[in-house]
Amino acid sequence: MIEFVNFYLFPALAIGSIYALGAVGISMIFGILRFAHFAHGDLMTLGTYGVLAMAAIVPVNPLLLIPFGMALTIVSALLVDRYFYKPLRELPTIYTVISSFGIALVFRSIVQLVWGSQNQVFSTGVKPPLVLFDTFRISVLHLQAVISTAIIAVLLHYFLTVTRTGRSMRAVADDPELAEVSGLDTAKVIRWTWIIGAALAAIAGTFAALNTSAHPNLGWNLLMPMFAAAILGGIGKPMGAMAGGFIIGLAEELSSYHWIGDDALISPSYKTAVAFVLMIGLLIFRPQGLFKGRLL
Amino acid sequence: MKKLTTFMAAAALLGSGTAALADDTKIGILMDITGPIANFIPPLQNAADLAVKQVNEQGGLLGGSAVAVYGDTTGTAQGAVDAAQKLVNVENVPIIMGSLMSGTTIAAAEAAIIPAGVPQISPTATSPAMTFLEDNGLVFRIVPSDNYQGEILAKMVMDEGIKKVALTYVNNDYGVGIGETFIDAYTEAGGEIVAEAKHEEKKDSYRSELASLAKGDAEALVVIAYAGDSGGKIVRQAIEGGLFTKFVGTDGLRDELLIQNVGADALKTSFFSSPTSPAENPAQKALHDAFNAAYGEGADKAFVDQTYDATFLALLAIEKAGSTDRAKIAEALKEVAMAPGEKVGPGEWAKAIALIKEGKDIDYEGASGSAEFDENGDVGGYIGKFVVDGDGYKQVEIVE
Amino acid sequence: MELTGLFFYAVSLLILGGIYAILCLALNVQWGMGGLFNAGIAGFYGVGAYTSAILTTSASSKHLGGFGLPVPLGLVGAAILAGLAGWAVARICVRLKSDYLAMASIGIAEILRLVIVNESWLTNGSLGLSRIPRPLADLTTGRMGDIVFLGFVWFVVLLVYLAASRLHDSPWGRSLRAIRDNEASAAAAGKNVEKFRIQTFVIGCAIMGIAGALSAHYFRFLSPTATDPLLVTFLVWVMLMAGGSGNNKGAILGALTIWTLWSVTEIFTNRLPPEWATRSSFIRMLLVGLLLQVVLQRFRSGLLPEKSPPVKFRQE
Amino acid sequence: MIELDKICVDFGGLRAIDHASFKIDAGRITGLIGPNGAGKTTAFNVIAGAIRPSAGRVLLDGKDITALKPHQRAKAGLARTFQIPHEFGHLSVLENLMASASAPEGENVFNVIFRRGHYQAEERQIYETARDTVRLLELDHVIDEKAGNLSGGQKKLVELGRALMRNPKIILLDEIGAGINRTLLSKLADKILMLNRERGLTFCLIEHDLDYVSKLCDHVLVMAQGSLLTEGSVEEVRNDERVIEAYFGGGKYEAQL
What we know:
The complex is a heterotetramer of chains A (296), B (400), C (316) and D (257). Chain B has 400 residues and is of the alpha/beta class. Helix content of chain B is 42%, strand content 18%.
């Protein structure tokens, strides 16, 4: 049982919070701009390297430098939207999807050109885990990730329900045509979608890199589970995406727990496939997600 | 008009490269620059460049200069074949050093390099399949087959008095090759593998794998994976979780990055195996000194020795053959690499060309071993046992 | 740079270009004619490659095999198995809207890749299959073998092109394009949308399997490194968009153009100053990403835009 | 010919059609009118199979077709046009019409690749019919134009042409007149009348312009708030208190009478 908590549950929650933060952006972009943003993972990578670059100059806890990564991703996302996605907005969404595929490649090659392809770590040495009650060993970083995600969830919820911009965003995500005729400022809504999505991507990327190391494929490798999380939570439902992220994280990690007998339920080699299978299953049987998102 | 100018500029650029001095001799270097092992490559490019630089500083190649031409396999079979075709046909190189991954090395050899009759020498392709290529004596490697390192590693672990281990290996040609041989050799020698897990690259968490590995009462965890990817993460997460304190690794894990990642203290009781040279051979030190003098750091990274040696051997073979005749070079490669002959070490190019001019036979003793090819172009070689020493690694024993 | 060398480089360009042309024609059936967003090309390509490799190699203790069949039968087997895989996928996924189908197909390709890597009794896992025969290998030796293989590849390209053109020009293709343009309206005109889509998906996947098989025979060695999504899935999409989606000739032209660009750029980037040359591969990736944006914004309909087939009764 | 039997349709919590029952008789031109939001287009969608009703049955010639999919209903003889033109944008006008015809031989993949001779006769037949239809609709000058480039009115004609290509028993026309200029409109009315009189084709049309309805229709069905309000001849309906109430009484609907 203790083993379960220490090696499966806590790490799963930490991975889940990374997925959750990434999935919020994907879900909102999908809901409001109506396309699957394939460059979101690489946007995460870009933010991570922004933080990493600052960390090389300013020797403080990398978590304090996340705003620099956020600034980098927000500016990049807004520029990319302005110059690459916006001209395609009137066309079938497929064009934007393919375009975002190319943008993913552009982000990745820029990271490799500027920072090289070698793995980079934020800090050396092993940080001893927090030991609670002599039995639970939790990595400090995991605790930070889960708590930050919880705080962000509260703030995001406040933003979406109380502020005018947040409410407009929800309205557009629910019904773009209706929102258009009721005179909402669509341009502003789109801007804020990118700002929030990009900012959270930078946070998620930094946590992922802190957990292991930064490398150019960091975000791309996380993309599919994040899509799965966004669909699970229901497209256009940021809070649903958060929950979806945690569910996917838990499902991936817990799938290889020895629930029955002594063997892992699913060989860890197939761990990656769990998110995919969940995602495909959802797409077929419950495409609106668990929280009644919009159907495209 | 605009198109025409672009075309002219492109043509000029293409011309400028190929119209270089007539007495330049090219050497093709095939590496997996982008793709899954991109993070290994920068020091290896330095190693190859170092060999070429030393040649040019010490009298040049065939009376002219040596020029390294790179091809990027992109870590895929398609990219490997395409890059090799360009090296062989467009750049017209007489010999190819590379590539690193077995998958790209064999695809490039089969589809492009062997048909063109170009000799190829890989520094790190460890797949057993390399042994049985129908290569007309053209394909060589200076790293032992996985089978060999797996057996030695098993012996090393037994000699250390470790009777029960947990084993995890990365699911690619490198990890599976060594891992499976290790299992056979270790259990045959009386050891017990209490837990075993094959793992995927590029995951963030290996904690669930570790949890199942920790379930037996293993004395050490054998990790056959790269420090830059899953290997480093596994060691780190095992230490963080307090699951293992003693690790046994291979050359993929023996990387300064690992020490950077988890700190030297945590690796005090761990040891690593890696292809190396006989103890009295000063070659490795000579290379590392020259490397660090040229690039500041990085000589101790995985596969640097092998890459340098393969490049240097390729250059020696061209010089020995006396021309860019591909068949002659293939023969010459065996002569310069194998005994008998006057010993030549890394960086001793001037000595080598003097000997060749005198008509004497030479035998290159490299930093990674002495490269005695068998009839399949394979080497046996020496495997060293390394421990962490400060920020780097120290060789403590050699197993043949 | 000697002429024979350039000639054989051209041969190799055309061999891989031909294999890409087949992939591109397959995607054109699925996307250009059928409007199905298959982002898992690498998966079906991999199924075909492994099927043909396993069917044609001689026995090995390491993996399934030892059938030693002739190469053309391997190709047929590859088409059948990849088509079956496509059928299974289509049965469950074909109703999905475009973006969702893209995500589902990426997921499926990834699962297929995991199976290839992990089920070593079948595929020899990451160690790969070696000694895969080439067709008509006895005729020649050395580089001349490439010329024979080039002929073989383009013979297959021709067959696939003929089949794709017949599909495109036929009432079947017309109805398929109608479904692509407007699903509701096509259903109202009595078209069984789901049946058409499944057929389209299966045909496309079978052709992708043939392309995979051809590359296995070209490389003579097959390991999971051959099913990389960047070089298989993504590049093929760029090729089709650039060549002209909906146009079979455009698909072939796009494949050849983009593959040549992709390959030849390395010759140029290698001639950059040394400090850039080591990063040439990343520059290449950046250029392809940007090129795609240019194609999407400026040359949306590609080099050869979609054209309606002529109606042959008109002249009479 | 068509019978709706206590049909209900729900969108989320909203009941768009509430136990609607009515008949469309064979050989006649029936008008379906009512204020916006009365459920007319939804009723068409239910008849054509695009929307599955939550309760009730749809009958075609006395046979229950509720379970049939849209393409199966089309094969059973039902054709429709859409309120917003649903043209095949990348196909030429001729292809739009030809694609709408039934082509069992030419849509068989095996035939297409290996036995092209098998569908030539069928294809020629389709071509002739499409030519005739183009001539009938006076679209000759745009026959090779991509349908996506046509004007709104031309697209409406293509919609009708596609429906005719099915050689159906009944055609459902959803606001075929909207967006078409006056001259074309009256020509269109003549064509519909001619098709009805000469070929015995059954029509059911949704239309807002009551003059147009009175010119065409033998019989009118009036829907309001999701069910049938009344039916009868145009004159009868026009003077019906409940109809006037339905149009004006809601207040929020514009006057359309």
